[in-house]
Amino acid sequence: MFARLARTNYLKNSGRYFSTEPTLKERLIQIIPAKQEQVKQLKTEHGDKIIGTCTVAQAYGGMRSVKSLVTETSSLDPEEGIRFRGLTIPECQERLPKAPGGAEPLPEGILWLLLTGEVPSESQVKTLSKDLAKRAGLPKHVTSMIKAFPKEMHPMSQLAAAILALQSGSKFVEAYNSGVKKDKYWESTLEDSLDVIAKLPEVAALIYQNTYKNGDITHKIDENLDWSANFTRMMGYSSKEFDELMRLYLTIHTDHEGGNVSAHTTHLVGSALSDSYLSLSAGMCGLAGPLHGLANQEVLSWTMNLQEKLGNKQVSNEVLSDAIWEGLNAGRVVPGFGHAVLRKTDPRYTCQREFALKHLPNDPLFKLVSQIYDVVPDILTKHGKTKNPFPNVDAHSGCLLQYYGLKEHNFYTVLFGVSRAIGVLSSLVWDRVLGHPIERPKSVTTEWISSFVNSDQSKK
Ligand SMILES: CC(=O)SCCNC(=O)CCNC(=O)[C@H](O)C(C)(C)COP(=O)(O)OP(=O)(O)OC[C@H]1O[C@@H](n2cnc3c(N)ncnc32)[C@H](O)[C@@H]1OP(=O)(O)O
Ligand SMILES: O=C([O-])CC(=O)C(=O)O
């Protein structure tokens, strides 16, 4: 409603449009008081209501399904998949602004959506692109540090370290040290978060150039290009189709509610009033684990090994299944399949598959990925361990990147991290808006559990 009214407020003047629409920060200032009031009221009037419980199995089992976190930006349904502020991925693809001539959403649009809960207008997204372009640019100590990293250092370790090095520019630290009041913390957290999101493409591109190309970035940030296209140019890519893939990729990897490792870590570290840089760097260390974001690197290596083993030719489902069983029987997981929450095919997998069907239907690797999708759910069901035999987001991304020439598997999680920063930092801003306290759940020992289960209290 608001966006529609605001769109009517363009003034045509000397052939140029001037928007009277609020900027991102102005809109947040308008939205925040009502949300703060709503949360205050919920805590006062319903603070003692129980929303979740925790069993012994859950305490030992990674707290699966325990409802004990509040995250505003997105919510995950086991059957349907992710909704970003209520919107499914197809709805985001349809409703978020696109680049001229493009079909995929601009990541700036989802940044706005996650922060405000509203679909931005094209002009709001354009203004945000320009704002991010202005905030880009790395301090010298960060570029020299990245260039000094050994090539064998994993790109995710380089990313986490570079984000920490950027912390010297934290506006939150400056505000905190000057005694700014708690109700204003969100403003400098927003500044830091936008600064780091603006700088991440250059950090990632420099890691890429330095690690794999022995080179430097030649592209200068162009305020008239979107955030994602500036990123691909800095990495040395100029294909329009790859630009579209990356806009989609950087949109869909942003957020997956609050309990996943990277989001929860960012939130936890942030709850100690660590700034956006410290919190995001910690989150990236979690994303770098093979059961989480690093799975996309694992998937591609696994798929290409399989391809080689099968003699680089199309084989029957039976032959493919035998090769997959071999790995499973040796005790290895099938990377890219299974999920801690999802119980159906991840819609992030589906939209990447649709992109491939549109742009690269005959690519041999895509054909193998499709065939794997045909056989693995049955195999994992027969295997009988995993609660979800279907593919997750990581099962598809590598084959698309590979097709467009981005062949360095070790780098893939960095792309995920650049996108994930948008979601977890939007959440951190809301943590500050709502004044969430330091996170400190109670832990118990196995001795405590043993005596508890035999006590009268456990029978209640
Ligand atoms: C962006 C993301 O983070 S998406 C997830 C990316 N990770 C992967 O794709 C790695 C492969 N998948 C997995 O390891 C798991 O499915 C996870 C980590 C994603 C979820 O873990 P959980 O919630 O513990 O899964 P679940 O409850 O189904 O696990 C039960 C058993 O099935 C096994 N299992 C789960 N997925 C798989 C799989 N893809 N292949 C083989 N075995 C599996 C588990 O290892 C576990 O075995 P165990 O009892 O011997 O320890
Ligand atoms: O939700 C999870 O646990 C893992 C995941 O898919 C993500 O973080 O994108």
- Gyration radius from CA atoms, angstroms: 23 Å
**What amount of the residues lies in strands?**
under 5%
Total beta strand runs: 4
Roughly how much helix do the residues carry, as a percent range?
55-70%
CATH homologous superfamily identity:
Citrate Synthase, domain 1
Structural class: mainly alpha
CATH topology: Citrate Synthase, domain 1
How far is the first residue's CA from the last residue's CA? 49 Å
CA-based shape: globular
What is the gist of this entry?
One of its GO terms (molecular function) is acyltransferase activity, acyl groups converted into alkyl on transfer. The chain has 460 residues and is mostly helical.
Characterization of this structure:
It is built from 21 helices and 4 strands. With 460 residues, it is mainly alpha-helical. The protein starts with a helix and ends in a 7-residue tail after the last helix. Helix content is 58%, strand content 3%. It binds acetyl coenzyme *A (ACO) and oxaloacetate ion. Residues 256, 260, 340-341, 392-393 line the site of oxaloacetate ion (OAA).
Topology:
Blueprint: H1 2-7, E1 11-13, E2 16-18, H2 24-46, H3 56-60, E3 74-77, E4 81-84, H4 89-95, H5 107-116, H6 122-135, H7 140-148, H8 155-166, H9 171-177, H10 185-213, H11 227-235, H12 240-252, H13 261-270, H14 276-287, H15 295-309, H16 317-329, H17 347-359, H18 364-383, H19 394-403, H20 412-433, H21 446-453
Antiparallel strand pairs: 1-2, 3-4
Helix pairs in contact: 5-12, 5-20, 6-10, 7-8, 7-10, 8-10, 8-14, 9-10, 10-11, 10-20, 12-17, 12-20, 13-14, 13-20, 14-20, 15-19, 16-18, 17-19
Residues 291-293, 295, 333-340, 385-388, 392-394 line the site of acetyl coenzyme *A.
